[in-house]
Write a structure and sequence with these properties.
The complex is a heterodimer. By secondary structure, chain A is an alpha/beta fold. Helix content of chain A is about 30%, strand content about 25%. The two termini of chain A are about 50 Å apart. Chain B is α+β, with helices and mostly antiparallel strands. In chain B, strands 1-23-24-5-22 form a 5-stranded mixed sheet. In chain B, strands 16, 17, 18, 20 and 21 form a 5-stranded antiparallel sheet that branches. Chain B starts with a helix and ends with a strand. Classes of the chains: A alpha/beta, B alpha+beta.
């Protein structure tokens, strides 16, 4: 009798297995490698246009021999197992502002299998000059918003592997300064002290209110020498920093990793290191972020050191973020690894912050936010990019532009015959 | 009673067996998912590393043109941006997979990294100025977690073969991905070594490949057994390549070797090859001369006047000549020489792409034995020449 019962159990187990395998279609481990065609396509288009030859060719008549040369160049430069389809569209705008893409020409060498990747490149006619004029952030609301980039020569970075704070400051300056009326590099921790006191001002600017402060030193935050010697617990420094962000209505930007994890000043901490051999830095640990949030939201210091991060793995940019990538012409890899995603319950629940998120949340970790700008209703905001090193500064630029959403005024790029969209789709033969 | 016990035993045995089978099956299912997740992380890391190498110039941005210590690793050309690699930074990579690939010169008591082309032409860089694999991995933040290798190879395959010595006829054949490249423009230069000096006389012209991707080029040099080097730059539809060939009447092994002494100042030393290799085939005093040609963006050559007087170089004395080339200009240093009454030449490509060199970085470690190796491929330009960069990445963890 019990044998019969056991047979029933086995049947239930088998049923469970078959149902699980039927509904849970897990990808094969070999399918993990699926984004390279897009990147290869991008680099192919860019290198073909390096001397402007692609731009010249796509505006020529489809019978022109230059098209045959382009096809030969494509065939010669791609590996034999990669097939391609290059399509060119002409852009035109109707009276009511609707942009239409009409097919001009297409070249390909074979049909595609299931696996393909594509990118596009907007090329301008060699005979037309375009202008692009970004709206200054704050202009539409009458605010005079200054961009401050921490470029302190007496500070060290952490989790900015491959870069220095200074090199990142230069990159972020090139990316974002066109969107701001005033951009100022904060070149030392002494200058940073002036900024915290509200007296570091560009010419013609009356206050530091509403500014954007970008910390290029990763998980470490520069600390003025006077603060380094006056505080015994550096979480208190981050609490005061949070209060300043609130009072001045700043947007504080942490470009990578766990925010407010270290303080850095190479002179004050010349014999102190961060447990990984980087001197000029002192660990504050998890208490730093909590203290900052307490200050930002005008709460009393809680003194907590709660861990609010989680390693959630690979996440993808949201559709809105991808749309903004196209709008601002910033193209980071759309899949990123979030190693320091922040807890939804803490930021939105306990501190009532309002997030503008960059990535779709992981289905396995729906309560953790990979990267977002968190606005405090009472003033101030925190942009926390909880991705892993190596930092991609373009993600930071995207977060700022998504938050402030400045308009970009482009001149007549949609007039027919002046711009063409070139798409290159690549496929891999011999299986997906 | 006995029947019930047997019933219990049988049922328990079947139940345990069924549970074990179920656990193993589900375990296999989950293991596959975990493998997928781990492979995806490696694939993302491969993209990350490739982007850093191809789209970041490193720090300082012009580190390839200086002797400075590198504090950020990247190979992008800071002047060009995008998918353009610096022709200088790659010259500072330690590409040797073991010590046998290094070149030691007693005259300077220095080991040199050897990025070889063929015909003996090589970029020989002081090992102390090179960035080794361990440093690069540290700067990329992947020490102990990921391994990587970088292969940089020309997109086009340009081969040059001699057909006839007098008149000199050379056949150029151009292929890409195995396909012949017809209608390609060829900018070619012949460096004929003249007995006087010995000096270099340059013959340049332009032609096109035929439908089979070949071109036959002839020169009337009035010399039945000429010594020469030949370079050809190929262009078609935005893809560019380089090919070259050398013929020395003094023998295949060059009598002298140009070695890079200082990146900052462009100092080059010219040493006797016997002092380096000890090969008896080059056991002779050599009379040498040096000429530098700047390579322009449209693949034309412009001669640059060097502070160098033709002179006699003895073997066995570890003496060398020093000259200085413009370090910020990509080009070719052609060293012409005469030994035992015969002529020859050797070229130092200043700039990785000037002679279409290729390099493998980190390949000595190898990815063998690892379950999953993610490979990223990118098209790049190096000083206008089309290259492909292949970055392989694997996890060093379990």
């Amino acid at each position: 009798m019990r044998t019969v019962e056991v047979l029933f159990v086995i049947m239930i187990l088998l049923s469970a297995f078959f149902i699980t395998t039927y509904f849970a279609v897990l990808p094969s481990p070999s399918q993990a490698f699926g984004t390279n065609l897009r990147e290869l396509s991008h680099s192919t288009l860019e290198t073909l246009d390096a001397e402007g030859i692609l731009s010249q060719t796509v505006f020529k008549d489809p019978k022109d021999p230059a098209w045959a040369d382009l096809q030969k160049a494509l065939s010669a430069s791609l590996p034999p197992n990669i097939v391609y389809n290059l399509t060119v569209y002409d852009l035109s705008t109707s009276q009511d502002g609707v942009v239409t893409y009409s097919l001009e020409h297409s070249i390909s060498d074979a049909g595609f299998g299931v696996d393909s990747g594509a990118t596009s490149l907007l090329v301008a006619s060699p005979n037309v000059t375009f202008t692009e004029d970004p709206q200054k952030i704050g202009e539409s609301t009458g605010q005079n918003i200054t961009l401050y980039i921490l470029n302190c020569e007496d500070a060290n970075g952490w989790w900015i592997t491959g870069y220095t704070g200074q090199s990142l400051a230069k990159d972020i300056y090139n990316l974002l300064s066109p969107y701001f009326t005033n951009t100022m590099l904060v070149n030392s921790t002494s200058d940073f002290e002036l900024l915290l006191d509200g007296t570091l001002l560009p010419d013609g600017v009356e206050s530091v209110n509403d500014a954007v402060i970008i910390n290029t030193f990763g998980e470490a935050v520069p600390i003025p020498s006077i603060n380094a010697s006056s505080y015994s617990d550096y979480a208190d420094y981050f609490y005061v920093l949070g209060q300043k962000v609130n009072n001045y209505n700043w947007t504080w930007v942490s470009i990578v990793g766990y925010p407010f994890y270290y303080v850095t000043n190479v002179n004050s901490f010349n014999i102190t290191q961060n447990d990984y051999g980087i001197y000029g830095m002192k660990k504050v640990d998890k208490a730093g972020a909590i203290a900052f949030l307490d200050g930002l939201t005008n709460n009393d210091p809680s003194g907590l050191a709660t861990d609010i991060k989680e390693e959630i793995g690979v996440v993808g940019l949201s559709s809105y973020a991808l749309d903004r990538c196209n709008y601002y012409g910033i193209y980071p890899n759309q899949n990123q690894t979030a190693a320091r995603a922040l807890n939804n319950a803490t930021l939105l629940g306990a501190y009532n912050l309002v997030p503008l998120e960059l990535f779709d949340r992981s289905t396995a970790y729906p309560n953790y936010i990979p990267a977002a700008t968190y606005r405090n209703e009472g003033g101030g905001a925190l942009t926390a990019i909880g991705l892993t090193r190596i930092p991609d500064i373009r993600i930071t630029a995207l977060a700022i532009l998504m938050y402030y959403n400045p308009t970009v005024y482009r001149s007549e790029f949609e007039v027919s015959g002046t711009s063409r969209l070139v798409t290159l789709q690549l496929g891999q033969q011999g299986g997906a | 009673m006995t029947g019930a016990t047997i019933d219990h035993l049988i049922s328990l045995t079947i139940l345990i067996a069924a549970l074990l089978v179920a656990m193993m099956t589900f375990n296999g299912l989950f293991a596959s998912a975990i493998d997928y997740d781990r492979n995806r992380q490696i694939a993302n890391k491969a993209i990350d590393i490739t982007n850093t190498i191809c789209l970041s110039p490193g720090n300082p941005p012009n580190w390839g043109q200086t002797n400075d210590t590198v504090s950020g690793f990247g190979l992008q050309d800071p002047k060009a941006g995008g998918y353009a690699l610096s022709p200088y930074s790659i010259m500072r990579l330690n590409t040797a997979s073991d010590d046998s690939q290094l070149v030691y010169y007693g005259g300077t008591d220095t080991y040199y990294n050897n990025i070889s082309t063929s015909y003996g032409h090589a970029i020989l860089t002081p090992l102390g100025d090179c960035v080794n694999y361990t440093t690069a991995a540290e700067l990329l933040g992947i020490t102990g977690s990921y391994g990587f290798s970088v292969d940089i190879t020309p997109t086009l395959d340009v081969t040059v073969s001699p057909v006839n010595p007098e008149p000199l006829i050379l056949n150029v054949n151009v292929t890409g991905s195995g396909l012949p490249l017809s209608g390609a423009t060829l900018n070619y230069n012949l460096f004929h070594i003249d007995n006087t000096g010995p000096s270099v006389v340059v013959y340049s012209n332009v032609t096109q490949t035929d439908p089979s991707g070949s071109a036959s080029i002839s020169f009337d040099l009035g010399d039945h057994n000429p010594s020469y080097s030949f370079t050809v730059y190929v262009s078609l539809g935005g893809v560019n390549g380089v090919g070259y060939y050398t013929h020395n009447t003094a023998g295949d092994l060059p009598f002298v070797l140009p070695l890079i002494q200082d990146f900052d100042d462009g100092k080059i030393i010219i040493a006797h090859n016997w002092d380096i290799t000890g090969d008896d085939r080059v056991h002779a005093t050599v009379f040498c001369n040096a000429t530098f040609f700047i390579l322009t963006s449209d693949f034309q050559l412009q001669e640059y006047p060097l502070n160098f007087e033709p002179a006699l170089l003895n073997y066995g004395e570890f003496k060398f000549f020093e000259t200085q080339i413009p370090s910020s200009e990509v080009g070719l240093l052609v060293v012409s020489y005469k030994a035992t009454g015969k002529l020859g030449s050797i070229i130092l490509p200043w700039g990785f792409s000037s002679l279409g060199a290729s390099a493998s970085y980190g390949s000595g470690l190898g990815s063998g034995g690892y379950d999953f190796v993610a490979t990223e491929l990118r098209q790049v330009k190096i000083d206008g020449v089309s290259y492909q960069v292949k970055v392989s990445t694997w996890s060093l963890g379990d």
